[in-house]
Amino acid sequence: MLESVMKAWWESSHMAGGNAAYVEELYEAYLDDPQSVSQEWRTIFDQLPKVNGVELETNHSQIRDQFRTMAKLGPMSRVATAVSGASGGDEKQVKVLQLINAFRFRGHQHANLDPLGLWKQERVRDLELSHHELSEADFDRAFNVGSYAIGKDSMPLGELFKSLNRTYCGSVGAEYMHITNTEQKRWIQQRFESVQAKPEFDRDTKVGILKGLVAADGMEKYLGSKFPGAKRFSLEGGDALIPMLKNLITHAGTNGAKEVVVGMAHRGRLNVLVNVLGKNPSVLFDEFAGKHDESLGAGDVKYHAGYSSDYATPGGNVHLALAFNPSHLEIVNPVVMGSVRARLDRRGCSDGSTVVPITIHGDAAIAGQGVVQETFNMSQTRAFAVGGTVRIVINNQVGFTTSKREDTRSTQYCTDIAKMVQAPIFHVNADDPEAVIFVTQLALDYRNTFKRDVVIDLVCYRRHGHNEADEPNATQPLMYQKIKKHPVPREIYADQLLAEGIIDKHEVEKMVSDYRAALDHGACVVEEWRPMTEHSVDWSPYLGHDWDVIYDGAITIDKLRELGEKIFSYPESVKLNSRVNKVYEDRKAMIAGEKPLDWGCAEMLAYASIVDLGKRIRMTGQDSGRGTFFHRHAVLHNQKDGSTYMPLQHVREGQGPMEIYDSVLSEEAVMAFEYGYSTAEPGCLTIWEAQFGDFANGAQVVIDQFLSSGEAKWGRLCGLTLLLPHGYEGQGPEHSSARLERFLQMCADHNWQVCVPSTPAQVFNMIRRQMVRPMRRPLIVMSPKSLLRHAMATSSLEELAEGVFKSVIGEVDEINPTKVKRVVMCSGKVYYDLLDQRRKNEQDDVAIIRIEQLYPFPHAEIAEVLEAYKHVQDWVWCQEEPQNQGAWYCSQHHFWSAIPDGARLTYAGRSASASPAVGYVSIHNQQQKALVDDALSIK
């Protein structure tokens, strides 16, 4: 008989690879209570060997290995022979535990999730009694239920089967058995199974849910009647989102949260603005009517707008922030996470308890847009963790106009992407608002307990087309025939409460009419709304400043030496790699005045001077600790034990925080995160560094939609600095150009600064300027590669101490201006090629001028530098990039305005090219020599 029991282990499971999961379930029941399994099973489990003397319950992985060994040895293995004569009752008991496990694994596939009833669920045999060799004939027989958290040790099979169906196949479909952490699974089981996924709510809660549905429905109907045909991306069908968010915020505040940051795309955004954040409806109506405040800049469509307010909860007021976002649906998610991380850092909170991120996704977008994967991947890393994000999917079963699952994704659920980080996923029928509130509280409690992401899949529908001007019947005729006849969620739930005697018809009608009257009145309709007092950052010192604001950046040489002694020293216990050790020994010589300063030394001194002021620095990038080109070495790696030491964290007692992280291998999500961070923390120098400048194009959405235009569209200031290694060293088309032309093309309204520093002193003062002056706008830096160790690219301590970034640098050699016949203007590394060749040529009739800031173009500074060359008629712009790239086309009008009237301006550089650079070193060298010679040759 035991042989048949063992055979059942390995052959009857729905899981590939045998019954290991089922045996583990039986083993967990044994750990809970050894008496819950039969004597035969106790004997088997008692005889399992201890591992290194450690109790088995702390070594589940070893136990699973033991079970797999049993499988390989076969049913009559040595374990099988440990007992004999197992009874049929034991075999049935195992089958019952298998049945429980089957519902935990696959019950969601039979859950009642689709409000429209259009989902065609495939038959799941694992959920049938017959699959487990059980039948209705066994219904009256009591079985031990193992770890099934129903509050009973045993139940008749009939009662258990009904309970499993209520729990796992009702309005909630729970996916959590993919989680490998037993504690997390047990926690979910206890919360989920103890109430059979349907807790009892008191009258106040139920009435509050109904009020939320009334508001959601009332808002959409009001807008639909007042502004027919206008785009509003209606929430209708997903109305439960409103009571869901309100409950989530209330629950968060009750549990100690002080801030909640929300990111969402268009669907339902206007409803959330008015019914959750408390935006004044009259303001929204004015936006529909075309009225706007002309002082707000270019502006944006109303369903991209953000908003902030405070929200009253039993635990105190919670500050709410709805992030501004563009039409790239999922890109706002890492922005929200970055904003949350900044707020957590400001509050000194390391576990995420005081600030909660909520991201709201579309079903097609969460599965279809790669930034979602990047964001999930970041969620548990040191640099980007925020204590878990509550992710809500408004699953209206249509992606734009596509509803066939095989066209929108390759998995059963749109949320399967979340399994990559073992996030639990709760699918819930949006027409059952009490089930929605249940999973909402469960999700937040899970997030708060385990500091991990959790997903709620709000399965609903879209009552109108993608926008209200679309005709959805053209592409989804069957769905929209069903939707047309389907009652709205408010009506469904009101009828439920009427049937329960919770509320009468008059009260429902009064709720509807009162809400309509409030909208007519135009006042805030959110009872919990409060004026903002909880926000913890003051942006007022940074408002109203332009890039040329006067500031004092000077620093004494003694201070520089003091800082250098701190940051170029390390404990004796830290043994450095020989090459790194030489870098640090050279830096000690530099601050002692024995050597000129190189790039890495000046950059490190800049950071030290900023944290010495008490300011925070945060830098992320794929190799930022040492620097991709082995120049920075801000993070030292002990060759003895692999530990790390960061001298910049030891400048002085009470200094500003210094954080440098080697980031995940992502551009889009990481840059978006850092943008979000910098918009929430103006007191931090936030830096994102590309491994190569070319790689920044992986984050082009962030550059286009946030960095370049965020201030013009939304009035959002941001001081994010991008370090983009750029320069032509013959390394091929993918490691040469940071696409300077793209940044210059987007320059307008003083939206950011584009700089190409060419000396260590310049990078020192550029970095300090970004923090010392009160202006907060993005800084785009074409940072160097070969210049990091170029013999000519050095500076003195005196040049650093001046404290001024020079937007234009004039001639450095002693050339008589009156002899000059040609002036060459340039930026970046090519300057040193020009200077070196001119010196070799012994020319004194060509002057070379460096433009270190290409935007905002420094008209006044360049006029001063070029004053001595008014007589020159031959002017050249020289660049390494192809003619259709670089600064030539985008900045040519600035160059013309800088030279004397009637003068001639020509181009010296590579010919136009579809590729950023050639791939052959020999051709690169030929091109480089030719462009330098062309620039210096007076025709």
UniProtKB/TrEMBL annotation:
Q: Which SUPFAM superfamilies match?
A: Thiamin diphosphate-binding fold (THDP-binding) (SSF52518)
Where do the Transketolase-like pyrimidine-binding domain residues begin and end?
A: 597-790
Q: Which GO terms describe its biological process?
A: tricarboxylic acid cycle
Q: Which cofactor does it need?
A: thiamine diphosphate
Which EC class, in a word? Answer: oxidoreductase
**PANTHER family from the UniProt entry:** 2-OXOADIPATE DEHYDROGENASE COMPLEX COMPONENT E1 (PTHR23152:SF4), 2-OXOGLUTARATE DEHYDROGENASE (PTHR23152)
State its Enzyme Commission number(s). Answer: 1.2.4.2
Could you state a single Gene Ontology molecular function term?
A: thiamine pyrophosphate binding
Taxonomy, superkingdom: Bacteria
State the protein's purpose. E1 component of the 2-oxoglutarate dehydrogenase (OGDH) complex which catalyzes the decarboxylation of 2-oxoglutarate, the first step in the conversion of 2-oxoglutarate to succinyl-CoA and CO(2).
Alphabetical UniProt keywords: Oxidoreductase, Thiamine pyrophosphate
Please state which protein family the record places this protein in: Belongs to the alpha-ketoglutarate dehydrogenase family.
Q: Which residues form a coiled coil?
A: none
Q: Name one GO cellular component term.
A: oxoglutarate dehydrogenase complex
Instruction: Give the protein's recorded name.
Output: 2-oxoglutarate dehydrogenase E1 component
